[in-house]
Specification:
single chain; 25 helices; Rossmann fold; 4 domains; 10 strands; 3-stranded mixed sheet
Amino acid sequence: MTDEVFEDEAAGGIDAGEDPGPALPGMETAAPADAGGYQVLARKYRPQTFPDLIGQEPMVRTLTNAFAAGRIAHAYMLTGVRGIGKTTTARLIARALNYETDEVDAPSINLDPPGRHCAAIAKSAHVDVMEMDAASRTGVGDIREILDGVRYAPVSARYKVYIIDEVHMLSTSAFNALLKTLEEPPEHVKFIFATTEIRKVPVTVLSRCQRFDLKRVDRTVLSDHLERICGRESAMVERDGLEAIARAAEGSVRDALSLLDQAIVQAEGEGAVTAAEVREMLGLADRSRVLDLLEAALEGRAKDALAELRHQYDAGADPQVLMRDLLDHLHSMSRIKAAGEDADLAEAKETIERLTALADARSLGALSRLWKTALTGLEDVRSAPDPVAAAEMAVIRIMAASSLPPPEDAARLIAAAKSGAEAGGAPAPSAPPAGPGGHAPEPQRSVAPELVEPGAPAGPSSLDDLIALIDEARDISLKFDVERYLRPVSFRPGAVTFEPAEGAPSTLGGRIAAFLHEATGARWLVDGSAKRGGETLNERRKREHEARMAEIMRDPALVKALTLFPGAELIGVEDAAAPARNHEDEEAPGAQAPRQETSR
């Protein structure tokens, strides 16, 4: 390490006379802090060499081999989430391309000791390394400024390097203007692009770049990194608190350092910052308490589960974070069930033991169902007007799902019940329930149609015949009204008598008469003033459907299934496919297609 770095560390809280110890990944500082000022950790501990890029070993290895072999690309595309190190990596590549010392005059990944151009490039102050933010300069005019300068040689460095951040924000015309130069750039020009939205970059640009996907930093690696920085800053934060920060940062080093900056000032006096203080700062619930909540829900202790959830919410826990933690625990249980001892969980030993005990009591299918239930609950919490109420409902659904038998066991029990019902014969239909006064209700009446007399005008002899005739003519409006409002009294040759149901249009009789005249060529008398007609077609269908559903609901196999799954509903019944028939069977009168019944 250089003397400059030692001075930076002294400014960060280490006495200048002390031995700072060996260099640690990511610990070198970019520039000394202003006198009397404070430099945030995200800037102070910005990586200064490629080995300092924690969690990006594959990219570093590829670049090292490429530089060693002299196979240096003319354009690089860096992509990854915010705060992962894209801009820092771009500056490191720019330094590597222009690395020059008294002993070395060639591109080099080894930036120790710093070269002549390193300090200026690191501070974005080098004349030959231009940085542009495409988020604020998106037009073709901005790109033309770059292209106008491409033809000129660098002033002092080996290469002119153009770093364009958030390149996906460029307009279509700006990308098109860049393409030709990007395909055949001058030998003294290199491009480095960075983006968080790689899918928005045209493939014509991507195909001309060497692409590196910067990975999210693993929680354990990030927690270790934060712990080393705490040591350098003479700050004490409990390991569980650092892990909570790493979890909240979601793999972003910059986010983690910003949160650590905030956490360090939570300490009172000379004491350490506790994990509880960090969780309170982040709005997180204690994960051990979340596990208590999950245990109560899975064991059916509704009162304890809801009380624990409300207590954590009152203590400042975010309902969304609570649901995410429940999802994490259910995911860990599923991994334990699937992989056993090989499951690699970044959890404390006691937590793993509790999760293992919960996982052992459930099948993998049941755990998958619980995870899906919790995932739906998280979506509900995000969109609900009252998030904590949605979280409570999600916990209740988890309890209900946990009380159900595993899907595979339920399927076997239903199959066994069905087999027993078939062996014992179908149950006899029960008598209809008694009406008021203990008497069975009078069945609904449908007047039987009269036969057509010989020589009479051909036409419908029943309501079904009339519907079939209307169907053939495809008069949808008339069919709808007949099905809904016509209560048949009689069908005679040349005459139809019916009672109009409530709400029937006054023109229904006239429309039926006109239709029959057109369909049969004969005049029909249609009387719509009768009383005590039969059922409309819709009423008959509803009665038949309800009768069939009532019979099905008495099936022992279905009764058993509904017992196994509390709160389940029968939403549909479909007849088994009819066996194959020969040609004669298909033409046999009365042959009917399978029917389907549905209900909710």
